[in-house]
Every structure is written in C-alpha cells, then in structure tokens.
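User: Reviewer 2 asked us to show a designed sequence for the structure in our supplementary figure. I'm pasting the structure tokens here. Could you produce the per-position amino acids so we can include them in the response letter?
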C-alpha cells in the first residue's frame, strides 16, 4: 500500500491513519526504500499491534526505533484466522529472511541414522544428508562414533544391508558377499541368502526398534530363545541370546529418562539481550535418542514466549516431524494456533514418509510446560545445557583474537577515543535492601580478563547507588594521583583487596612488600572506565573524575535494559550494532563485574549472619551450619516460627526462641532480597 501522510510530527512519515488499519488477524511487513523486507510479524488485531510501532519515537525501544526509522513503508495482509496468520508469517520469514527477525545459526551439521526404505533393498547408513528420498531418519546425534557403535550392535540383531551401492553391485556380479555377510552382520540379499521381501521386513523391524518399540522385540526374542532351548535347538537359542545382548547394549547407549511409552521433545532456552542458546532433547521410547543445539541471534528484544514460537518453527521445518508432546519453558500467546501448525506438520510427515509397521500415528501435538516429576527434571536439564551453551558461545566469541581486535577498534571508533581501550576497568555496586553495600572492579586487558587485578570495595555508608559509585570511583582514582603512595590510607588498602586476599594488611616487611606490589598494579591507569548504569551513574563517576584531577581516561556507562552506552554530558546514548563483537565485549565485562560484586556481597552477608547467630548462647558453628542447611536461606530462617526452628537437630525450644528474637527483634525488615547491581 502507498505511504500515508503523518498525522504527528514525532513519528515516522509513512505512518498510516489508524482508521485505515483493519482490526482483523493478519501479517504485516516493514520494507525499506529499496523494497527489501526488514521485518515480518503477525497479529490477532493488526490495528492494535501496528499502533505500537507508531508511538512517539522517543518512547520506542531502541532496536524497534532503529527498525521503524530504517523502514520506508509498512503493508499488511488480512487473513481469516490466527492460525492462517501463523502459517503466512512462517512462509514469509523463510522467503524473505528479514534482518530484524530472529536469525538462527546452527553451527553444526549433525549426523543422522537413516534407513533407505524407498530403495528396493533398504540400507542402513550414517549420514548428514537430510534429503534422501523416502528415508526414515533417527537423530540428530552429537557424536558420529556413538551412532556407529549403536549401528554395529543393531546389525547383530537386524542384519540389514549397510554397504554402499557399488559394493552391493559388485557382490551381485561376483556372487560373493562382503565381509559383513560372512560374519553375520548382513543377511546378504546380494547373493540370495534372503529374499528382498524378507530383507525389507528386517529393515522395518530395525526402524520399529529405533522408533521406540525396543522392549517388544526383546520380549519376543526372549520367548524365541526359550522355545529353541526347550526343543534342544541350542544353536538357534544362542543366536537369539546374542541378539538380545546386542539390543540391550544398544538400548544402554540411550539414557532411560521416562516411561517406555513416552515420545516427546524437550526444549531448553537460555537468552539475554543479544543472543539465545537452544537445546533440544529428542526422547523416543522413554530414552534420549538425540540432542540438538543451536544459537539464535536476537535483533529485536522479544519475550521468551515469542522466542519459543520461532524456535519451534525452526526446529520442525523441512522433514522433521514433531512428536505428540513438546516441553517448552513458556507457552506463547498463540499456543493453540502453534499446536495446529505442528499437528499439520506431523500429519504431512506421516503421509509423506515410508510405510511403517504398527498403527498410524495421530496428528495431535500438545505444548506443555512441565511443572513437576521426571519431565520437569528433563526440562531443567535441557535448560541447564542451554545456559552452558550460551556461556560457551559468548566466551568463545570474546576470546577469539581477531574478534577481540575488531571489538576494541569498534569501541574506539564508537566512543571517539584516541587509542584503542587496551585496558578497561568496570565497576558495579551490589547491596541487600540498602545494607551490606559492596562494589567490584574487574579489569580486562587486550579484551581478556585479568583476574589477579580484580578489586573489591566495602562501602560503610551511602545514600543511594550514585553516591556509592562516586565513593568507589574516588577511592580508585586516588591511586592514580602523583602522590598516591603518600596519601593512600591504610583503610583504602584494606578495602581494596584482591579476590581471596586477607583484608587485614600487617606492617611486617613481607606483607608490606605484597601490598606495595598490589598498589603498583592498582596505579596503572585504564584507557576506558565503565560503570554499570545509565546517565545518573555516569554523572556520579564523572564528578569523581573531575575532583580527582586525573585526565586521559574515557568514561562510559552501560545501561542494562537497552544495552546502551552513555557518555558524560550526552543527551543521547551510543548504540553499538546488535550482535557486534564490540557490544559482546562490553556486555561481558559488565556481567563479570556484576558476578564479582554479587559473590563478594553474598560472602559478606554470610559472615554477618554467622556472626550474629554465633553470639547466641548455646549456638556454636555446627548448629549455625545446621540451621542454614535446614532452611536453605537466611530469608526462610527469618520467616520461621520458634516452633519450626526448634525442629532443627540440636536446637531446643529455648535456643529457638533466642534465634527468633535475635533475627526478628533487631530492627531489620527480615527480607532477603535479590542481589543486584547498583543501577537495578
């Protein structure tokens, strides 16, 4: 549709009139001046959804604002139902690959176990090719050697052809089978030892076993072995015994996690503002038959439910058929429509696939969030693996030398620095409801952490987060003055210790020399000083920098909500490109400062509560430990009644009453809030 004149001056020029946008379900596309599709989205109500994009630009999320201002027009297509909108959105995303939609990056080509049921003589093979006609696939698997071992065991029970077409034709011409035929791992249809029909039956049994009907075959083989033994056919009984052992060994290579009748996929997703890692556990017959993982680049800041939707669409495109049950971390808003799409994919895959033994599967697919039991434990395991994958992805990206060099140069250009920030220091403040205020300083040199130069700060008193930042930066800059050694006080040395050092510094020669070495490291000036926060925190740090008289240091702050870089005396933030190495590096140093601050704050809190409880008569270190172990946290202990405290082993009614009085009668609010950086 043609662009429409704006009705407001603080939004984009192509904003359509509200009355022109229909209220039916539909799919919309933003295009740039060259008609390239930038973003595709769907909506239950097009007018309500599109009005969110045409609010005043200053009120939009930064990445949404960048997409809207880059675009030159918007167009929409009305459909009859939300399900049709879902299908059309999926089709357009695949067709146009819009840069502002979620970008999937599968960094591996996973191996599959395939059975070519479309061939006259089916073949078992390990392949990465997903385009074999009429082949039945199992997997994907993370290790080639693991699936090859499984196939080797399976061929002892189901001696299906596994040789290449060239080897098979040569055996047909010569009348001599290959080595696998001689050792019993192939029924040798090439030389007529078994008819093509019987060999196909073996292949279908192989497929059925891999699809989850494993216990059925083992029970049948066990019965055949007993019958053969009862008729004194010990040779046949031995063959059945060997087949049972092979199948049990193959089953043992897949961890039993659920009941044998359970078929499901469990998705774990870990994400932040820039990227997300996805872990997919493929469970068939109650066993994990395959694991798949990939990385998602997030251009726009989308919620977990919307991310789940795009992940599932990516996971089940092509020839992948969804199972009857799918576990996800959060249900999307249009879960019912997504289930319809998955049901259609399941029916299509079943109709297009080769004929298999057993009843035909139904198309019903259910999305669920596991709440308790074995399925919840499996979902937690998938999520834990996703978190580890996200950490590994970010660490590998940050540790790459070429990426680090580019990141440092990009930061230099974006902040207008004379030199690249070869030494960066980042500060974060952590507290618990205004108490136990601490701060951290982490150091990155050449884009890598220097943990031996990390520092911790105790802040005895502060009015708010900006005051805490001001104090910490002032104390750190004191070491950069020309008279640092003469003016630095003993208290400052005690408060700025290396992680793991004793905060009390003696005056004897050895400890004094160690303190001097730390001071020399601490006096090395950074090129870039980063604080965790936005304009208020940057202004507080700038005030400390001005008062110190130290020059030659670039100051910046990173605001967590939008990942914006704020400079002193600037009304607008610096926006580093999404998924750029520069933003990854700044984000990593900020996260490291946050982690280090929380670790110190929790250690301080634990020492405080242990000291408080240790002052109660009759409550020694072992009983204090037992109390904290029993309740799990200080917050739970403070909320407990004297009767509940008295249930702890070794704690009597009198001691329980003393603990309750001490924790709840000292003027504290009794809450154990979440740790957080100073700008939270």
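Assistant: Here is a per-position design you can include in the supplement:
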């Amino acid at each position: 549709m043609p662009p429409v004149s704006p009705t407001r001056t603080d939004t984009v020029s192509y904003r359509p009139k509200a009355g022109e946008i229909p209220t039916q379900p539909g799919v919309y596309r933003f295009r740039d001046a060259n008609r390239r599709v930038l973003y595709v989205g769907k909506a239950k109500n097009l007018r309500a959804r599109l009005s969110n994009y045409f609010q005043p630009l200053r009120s939009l999320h930064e990445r949404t604002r960048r997409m809207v201002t880059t675009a030159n027009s918007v167009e929409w297509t009305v459909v009859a139902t939300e399900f049709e909108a879902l299908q059309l959105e999926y089709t357009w995303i695949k067709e146009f690959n819009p840069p502002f939609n979620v970008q999937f990056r599968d960094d591996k080509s996973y191996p599959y176990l395939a059975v070519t049921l479309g061939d006259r003589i089916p073949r078992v093979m390990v392949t990465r090719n997903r385009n074999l006609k009429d082949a039945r696939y199992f997997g994907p698997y993370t290790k080639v050697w693991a699936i090859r071992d499984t196939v080797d065991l399976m061929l002892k029970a189901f001696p299906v052809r596994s040789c290449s077409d060239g080897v098979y034709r040569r055996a047909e011409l010569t009348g001599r089978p290959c080595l696998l035929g001689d050792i019993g791992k192939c029924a040798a249809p090439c030389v007529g030892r078994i008819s093509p029909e019987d060999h196909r039956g073996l292949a279908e049994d192989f497929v059925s076993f891999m699809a989850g009907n494993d216990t059925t075959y083992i029970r049948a083989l066990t019965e055949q072995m007993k019958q053969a033994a009862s008729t004194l056919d010990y040779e046949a009984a031995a063959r059945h015994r060997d087949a049972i052992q092979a199948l049990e060994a193959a089953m043992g290579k897949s961890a039993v996690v659920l009941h044998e009748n359970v078929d499901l996929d469990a998705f774990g997703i870990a994400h932040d503002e820039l990227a997300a890692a996805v872990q997919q556990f493929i469970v068939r017959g109650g066993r994990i038959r395959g694991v798949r993982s990939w990385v998602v680049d997030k251009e726009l800041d989308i919620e977990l439910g919307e991310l789940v939707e795009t992940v599932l669409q990516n996971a089940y495109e092509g020839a992948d058929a969804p199972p009857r049950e799918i576990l996800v971390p959060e249900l999307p808003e249009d879960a019912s429509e997504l289930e319809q799409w998955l049901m259609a994919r399941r029916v299509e895959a079943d109709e297009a696939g080769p004929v298999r033994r057993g009843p035909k599967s139904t198309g019903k697919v259910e999305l669920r969030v596991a709440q308790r039991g074995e399925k919840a434990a499996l979902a937690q395991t998938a999520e834990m693996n996703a978190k580890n994958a996200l950490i590994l992805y970010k660490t590998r990206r940050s540790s790459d030398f070429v990426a680090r060099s580019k990141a440092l140069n990009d930061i230099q250009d974006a902040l207008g620095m004379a030199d690249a920030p070869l030494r960066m220091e980042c500060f974060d403040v952590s507290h618990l409801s205004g108490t136990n205020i601490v701060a951290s300083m982490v150091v990155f040199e050449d884009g890598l952490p220097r943990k031996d130069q990390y520092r911790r700060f105790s802040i005895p008193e502060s009015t708010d987060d900006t005051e805490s930042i001001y104090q910490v930066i002032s104390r750190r800059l004191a070491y950069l003055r020309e008279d640092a050694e003469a003016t630095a006080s003993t208290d400052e040395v005690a408060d700025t210790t290396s992680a793991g050092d004793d905060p009390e510094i003696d005056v004897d020669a050895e400890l004094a020399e160690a303190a001097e070495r730390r001071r020399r490291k601490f006096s090395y000036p950074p090129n870039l000083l980063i604080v965790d926060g936005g304009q208020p925190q940057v202004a507080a740090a700038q005030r400390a920098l001005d008062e110190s008289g130290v020059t030659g240091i670039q100051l910046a702050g990173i605001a967590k909500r939008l990942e914006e870089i704020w400079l002193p005396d600037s009304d607008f933030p610096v926006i580093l490109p999404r998924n750029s190495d520069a933003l990854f590096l700044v984000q990593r140093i900020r996260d490291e400062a946050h982690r280090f601050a929380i670790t110190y704050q929790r250690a301080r809190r634990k020492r405080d509560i242990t000291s408080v409880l240790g002052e109660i008569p009759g409550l020694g270190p072992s009983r204090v430990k037992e109390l904290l172990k029993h309740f799990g946290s200080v917050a739970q202990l403070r909320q407990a009644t004297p009767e509940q405290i008295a249930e702890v082993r070794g704690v009597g009614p009198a001691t329980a009453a003393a603990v309750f009085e001490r924790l709840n009668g000292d003027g504290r609010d009794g809450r154990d809030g979440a740790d957080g950086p100073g700008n939270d």
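For the response letter, you might also mention the following. The chain has a mean pLDDT of 76. The chain is about 45% helix and 15% strand.
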